[in-house]
Specification:
heterodimer; A: five-stranded mixed sheet; two-stranded antiparallel ribbon; B: 156 residues; Nucleotidyltransferase, domain 5; five-stranded mixed sheet; two-stranded parallel sheet; 28% helix; 20% strand; elongated
Chain lengths: 192, 156
Amino acid sequence: MARKAAPEINAGSMADIAFLLLIFFLVTTTMDVDTGITRKLPPPVEDTEDDIDVKDRNVLKILVNNQDRLLIDGKPGDISQLRYKVIDFITPHPENPEYPEVTSKYIEQLKTEIVVSKGIISLKNDRGTSYDMYIAVQNELAAAFNELKDRFSMDQYGMKYSVLIDKDKIDAVNAAVPVAISEAEPEDIGGN
Amino acid sequence: MSKFKTKQGKGSPAINTSSLPDIIFMLLFFFMVTTVMREVTLKVKTKLPQATEVQKLEKKSLVSYIYIGPPTKSALYGTNSRIQLNDTFATVDDIQEFVAKEREDRDEADRKFITTSLKVDGLTKMGIVTDVKQELRKAGALKINYSTRKGKSNQK
């Protein structure tokens, strides 16, 4: 039998098939990048007996109760004030006894000593605190420290911390503005 | 002798659609490459809280996830927040084992860079989150990330 020429395949529906696949991937695709607040947990301690003594003026106590109310340094406060209170607290005030003590710290990258505050933020929450509130507080604290880093970075390098590229500079800012947040073990005060 | 020809009566010429499949295929490949299939089926609802000071999580292969939230099948499992590791519900005691297993799965050199991402529902109480954090401390998984969406904070 003589060979017939192969009949031409109708490619008209190719677009439809491709469309179908396209719609499937369009629906299943998730473009979200994971974002979040990164924190470092303290390593576990064996004996809880030897608490490190920290002077009272060096600590800014933040308490969150099970009604999501804030107590900033013994006074009821609002979340909107938190950022500025923290910035104010951590900014070194060498002469004022109301503020935390200061110490000079040698920054390797800058080859100079700078004055840093010895202030620590102590965050304590109840077991009944909602995660929303906890994140809101953490967010404000992160914002405060980012602002402080920005200020230092502006002073030293004339640009914001977030746009620094040089690793040495980033390390220098991180060394000069340590994120001093201490988290106490939560208490079950509110009875949940 | 008009300069502009009238278009009437001519009919629009047919557009050549033979390259349409190619265009569609191009789009298709783009989405095929960018798509990420979810590895775990979520058994808990995690409506993440919003925050403004968020950082991006880099190196997805070095992130292990812990989900905490109210179960989706609330009729079966109740509305209290539960922990989900991989595909099953878990208790606080399972976390150390989970962390150890996640470590095993990674290369030796990468192990110290593992970040634990906590995907926690906003309405969850901190009690369970704190228990998880304490377990993570004991297990030595100290780098954690509170997963949040970028946006205005929920709290006024």
